[in-house]
DNA sequence: GTGACACTGGACCAATCGGTCTATTCCTGT
DNA sequence: ACAGGAATAGACCGATTGGTCCAGTGTCAC
């Protein structure tokens, strides 16, 4: 919340991520980002020479890193895969309530942007990174390789679908109930 | 594919649904819709006095009806809930391959539009309609009320999450594998 | 025929879009 | 002190946006 000491580039990335996730790539004008980040247009094109698309990629990567940290935090102290997965669902539900996050930011940023092929491929890359992170923890917790792979992908699907339903219902209840589907 | 005999209003709805689902609400200009539907601007504002937002609601409703028909077609001949759900997943995978559908159209249309509250509430209404349709079939196939409710919601979550991963990977494989998560 | 009304066609508009450009300020190494 | 690159500041641009408006066109009932 103390944005003042943050460097301009980081302020731009955070502002862009926040706006993109609520209104989508095309729904956000550069003027909106600039106003929220309190930065002039010159700074944006200095840090992101390719303009809006560069900024979108950076924002998606930043959001992805946050998610990876959340996954790690959920599974690090867990005794079993189920425990870690449940913790992750609860953390996401809390995040949903606090921030009113409108979507997995990556989806909103990357699925409707320009250069659709490149953007979508990047989304796939990011998602596979999340699944790989879960998979690592699953194997560490004793699951066989094939089992761990299936479980990690299953968890990803549940979270994405659950998040979408939570959005539509404006309630995090679905996310908390996800553990019953594991 | 024979759009010619279709009334202008229907051509507009179909064109809008097709474009919105690939590029999102803000990503599509009225000029694009008009060009694809081969209709002048005057017709659009005659049939949809509130312009783009009216058109988006109509497009979402049309897409929703298509999905309801798909659910019915999948469960009508099914002997068990699992069989119907599996058929639905396969039908969706085929749809994904044929049309290259970019997203659940409802999500792309309603989650990033203007009037975010009203639009999102409408998305919730549509989704609950899908779940209710599945629930009806589940009960008809002998599941208890509470069990049917949980299974219907579970299927919805799997499909939404699976579709998203399929999009990112540009492969319908995930959708076909969904049955293993039932 | 003729009036009434649903519909089409497209010119036109202010506002906003993403992006470019140059002038200026700030900071750091020497 | 001063040089020089990094960063900031914002005026400016052509293109496109959603939306308005009205003159035409078709098609009914009478």
Notes on the structure:
Two copies of one chain form a homodimer. The first copy, chain A, is an all-alpha fold. In chain A, 75% of the residues lie in helices and 0% in strands. The first copy, chain A, is built from nine helices and no strands. In chain A, helix 1 crosses helix 2 and helix 1 packs across helix 4. The first copy, chain A, starts with 7 loop residues before the first helix and ends in a 5-residue tail after the last helix. The mean pLDDT of chain A is 94. At the A-B interface, helix 7 and helix 8 of A face helix 7 and helix 8 of B. Chain A binds a DNA duplex (30 and 30 nucleotides) through helix 3.
The fraction of residues assigned to DSSP E strands of chain A is under 5%
User: How much helix is in the residues of chain A?
Assistant: over 70%
Major sheet summary line of chain A: none
**Annotation, overall tally of beta strands of chain A:** 0
Quaternary state, please? homodimer
Low-confidence stretches of chain A: none
What overall form of chain A do the CA principal axes indicate?
elongated
Greatest contact between two chains: A-B, 38 and 39 residues
Order of helices and strands of chain A: HHHHHHHHH
| Overall pLDDT of chain A | 94
Structural class of chain A: mainly alpha
Give the radius of gyration of chain A.
17 Å
**Distance linking N and C termini of chain A:** 35 Å
Q: How large is the count of helical segments of chain A? A: 9
């Amino acid at each position: 919340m103390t944005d003042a000491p943050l460097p301009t580039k980081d302020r731009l990335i955070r502002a862009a991520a926040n706006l993109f996730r609520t209104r989508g790539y095309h729904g956000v004008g550069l003027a909106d980002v600039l106003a929220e980040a309190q930065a002039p247009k010159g700074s944006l094109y200095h840090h992101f020479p390719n303009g809006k698309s560069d900024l979108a990629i950076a924002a998606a990567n930043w959001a992805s890193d946050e998610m990876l940290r959340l996954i790690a935090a959920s599974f690090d102290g867990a005794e079993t895969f189920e425990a870690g997965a449940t913790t992750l669902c609860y953390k996401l539900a809390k995040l949903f309530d606090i921030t009113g996050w409108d979507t997995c930011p990556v989806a909103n940023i990357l699925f409707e942007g320009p250069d659709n092929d490149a953007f979508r491929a990047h989304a796939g890359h990011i998602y596979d990174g999340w699944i790989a992170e879960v998979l690592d923890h699953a194997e560490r917790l004793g699951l066989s390789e094939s089992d761990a792979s299936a479980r990690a992908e299953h968890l990803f699907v549940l979270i994405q679908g659950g998040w979408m339903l939570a959005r539509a219902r404006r309630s995090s209840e679905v996310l908390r109930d996800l553990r019953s589907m594991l």
